[in-house]
Amino acid sequence: MRVPIQHSLSKEEVRHRLRTRSPEIKDAVPGGMADVTTAWPNEDCMTLNVRALGQSVDGRVLIEERQVVFEVDLPLALSFVEPLIRGAIESKGQKLLAPK
Fold it and tell me: 45, 60 in Cβ contact below 8 A?
């Protein structure tokens, strides 16, 4: 699943916001029982792994000039919740990238 979100920030500001607010990702998972691990293989890509309720989901956040693309490797067993996940990413992502 790919979810692009437009922004008007500098790449540096997007990186800063992602680094400082990535611990909040677990709060977006219902039940608050998620374990989230993030890493930065390069300055324009944050990888993440979310484990909750016996499931593990990998993803990437790709920082581009005018958009941030959230890529989530959703297992087939969780495909029925794709609309919920997409909606949460769009909502939280837009708030994260909104001008202050």
Answer: yes
Domain 2-97 in this protein, CATH class:
alpha beta
Q: Which residue stretches of the chain are H helix?
A: 11-21, 82-97
What the block records as the tokens of 30 is 């219902």
CA separation, residue 75 to residues 41, 56, 85 (Å): 23, 8, 12
DSSP code, position 29: S
Convert the pLDDT of each residue in 18-67 to its tens digit: 998 888 877 776 666 788 899 999 999 999 999 887 888 999 999 999 99
Parse the chain into domains and list their residue ranges.
2-97
